[in-house]
Amino acid sequence: MKRLIIGALVALGSSVLWADEPVGLVLSPGGSKLLRSNTETPLAARAGDLLFTGDGLKTESSTASFLFCPSKSIETLSASGEVRFEAKQPKVRTGKISEQPARACTLPETLRVAAASQQHYGVSMTRGDTKPEIAPTPREKLPPEVLAELGPVDANDPSTLVAAGAVFEKYKLAPNALEVYYKLRQQWPDAVWVKSKIFDLEQTVAAQAAATAAAGPGGQTYALLVGISKYKHAELSLQFPNADANTFAQLLESPRGGGVPTQNILLLTDEKATTAAVRNGFQDFLKRRASKNDTVIILVAGHGTVDGKNAFVLTYDADPQDLASTALPMAELRALFEDQLKKVGRVLLFADVCKAGTIGSIQNMTVSSDVQHLGDVEGDLFGLLASRPKELSLEGPQFGGGHGVFSYYVIKGLAGAADDNKDGVVDANELIQYVSNQVPQATSNKQHPREFGTYDNSMKLSDTHKPGIDVAHFPIIFDSRRGEPLYLASTAPVFDDAEDLARFTAAIGAGRILPDQPDNAFDALKKIQPQVTADRYIEIGNQLRVALENRAQEVLLRYLAGDQNPQTQQDFLQAGRYMEAARTLTQESLFLEGRSDFFQGRALLFDKKYSDAANLLEQSVRIDPGGAYGYNALGIAYLEQAQFDKAIPAFRDAARRATRWSYPLHNEALAYVESGEYTAAIRLYQQAMRLTPQYSYLPYNLGLVYQRLNRRKEADASYRRAMSIAPDSAEPYNALGTLKASEGKNAEAEKLYRDALSRNPNLLVARHNLALLLVATNRRAEAVDLWRANLRQSPDHLPSRLSLAETLAASGDRAGAIEQYRAVLAAKPGYIAARLALADQLAKNGDADGALEELRKSDQQNAAVLEQIGDLEMSRGRTAEARQAYTSALAVTTDRTARKRIRSKLR
What we know:
By secondary structure, the protein is an alpha+beta fold. The chain folds into 5 domains: 22-106, no CATH class; 119-212, no CATH class; 215-491, Rossmann fold (3-Layer(aba) Sandwich); 697-794, Tetratricopeptide repeat domain (Serine Threonine Protein Phosphatase 5, Tetratricopeptide repeat), CATH 1.25.40.10; 814-906, Tetratricopeptide repeat domain (Serine Threonine Protein Phosphatase 5, Tetratricopeptide repeat). A hairpin with a 6-residue loop joins strand 23 (392-396) and strand 24 (403-404).
């Protein structure tokens, strides 16, 4: 099988994040809206929001004030005003601005668009402590240049605190800056940039404290080995990356490969290699475990891809529709390498991150010019890539019983075949030469590995004097207890009570990972803590964090599928619980906070608590402004409130951030349909179907649009396309049935309704439509049975109850009709048509008093109600009362036909 290689871990393009200098800061929002540059969705402005060039502020009924540093002023925007921020001055579009001098106006450089995933693994995940370990420098001991820039600090004036924080950061006084930002967080609890500063500075302070501590013996080797053959999306699956990683682990454990201790190897294959697990592995080894005396070996074998200008490693649970939210961005790995490589002795990176010609709807391109960037990072890095750009990387059973050709010759070379001078040592230069010669020969010159990095050519990689592995067979390591590839790092050293670790592992395996569940992993973790070292406790705790993230990620992945598999409120509530549980372990993680806000906000939409939901969803997009999922949920909140002018920009923002995701396109199309813009809706559905042709709900909904427009032929074709994609789905059969019924093709319609019910016997709308058809063809008894079945299943299904009432009335069963109309009114007391129908049946049943009583419960300004009261009074011989009712009816109606009819009754 052919595997196409991308430049591993270094393809960044425009995805590299950099700090930007803000021009202003919101002081008093006054209910205004914040308009971010390159974003269509307005967000509620909050005190502490930083303002960058290109951003805007729009007031409604109140004024808003903000700090504007280019002019060193505090400016106030009038009500019903709008301003855009430029580099030198704000540009007023509407309204007026007044200004006054600012006491302080220095703002810190900050990421304009932060990546939440890069603010996830903070000090509690890597150092085990969230509190600073170095005291701030007292003011009297600050350097003169700092004091010269540091103005008076007023705790009640946040602008002076912001300025102080910026000065302390400038002079690398992290503990002082951290102290300031803690105070700002108390004043502005929703300011994401303040939380971000705290996240980064806590790590800086912790790293400084660690650097001053006594250095350990070091000299350890750690290995992170990732090999993904089977993917959650089966169409992505490869053959042998898992074997590559397993065999590499066996080599490293052998004396020849360095005798790396089992607890120092993290082997992640197939379903173990989730985004959370792989991210944890990189962070754990490069940020927490390895020090200046240590070596980190990394093998990544699986899929990688480039979408637009951003590159990703495809983890087991990555979804091509939204790689930014589900895969591992290479920009994140690049940032980690830049930050940590210089703090590690050396890193050996073997990258076989391959890709197929198409991943999802992505037509892949190889990464070329950016491949070399990782070699520019400060530190000792030895890197080998599997091939040149645009080359296919081969794998097959002929390579050691089943391997990628690149991995096979890397392992074989390290096992001794690369020892060209026979001195018993394989060094870096020998391995490069061996792999570079053997791979092209084995692939008829179709694949050419290449090296990168800054390293010593004579660096010793393996010692062939020592026992190794049998390169002829390359047996895979399996866990004899479970019959699956061994997760090496989960094998813990024995401590006082191994039962607690077994209980912890069993709880995770059984999914008992929430603290309120019986025999849960949290309780076991608490018992483990006093028995192990701090480092070991973090390692074990990280397994629980990964498990919690994995479960929440499953909900997000189903969310990406949209209406193909509709989710329930309980799904989102449960995912929110997983995130909140993870946050108890890692309170500083902005990534977890943003995901938790999203899940909880999305759940609130089911209760129609739109204001509370919007607050949480807006906070989610503030924390993860590059994520599409939050904007899509915001759009749904607006859509459900019929605020289409707000929903459409939110869906567009979601689609812009995940250009392969069809769900926001579907939602945007729904908004256009409700706005009467059918052409735009059709275009969006066609675009969505090109992205995800496997989703039947898209042509189904397109068919509904065509049917609304009376474009019957296109509606028919769309429904049939949905049926061919999902033959077991009932909805397209029902929809096509309604189309045939509208054309008078009752036999075809009946068959389609029954086909729908054979696929989903509980589909209320299909049973209802079939009943309507049966009534139209004089088969009332069966229709009544169908409606009663619907009401047993769903007593609040109003169409079935109304139709049943009408049918019973038409067949002379007045008592039955009265019962059904009363049930309708119990659920909807203001339903006038049902009240009129009930009164009519009561009157025909000889209960004129009851009929009048029902009518007088209705709106006395409704002409139909008043006219029916007049009719009843007239039938009882009460002429005066009847004339009064008719006269009142004339006074409230302008309908000519009704007025003519009522006047005739007054004669």
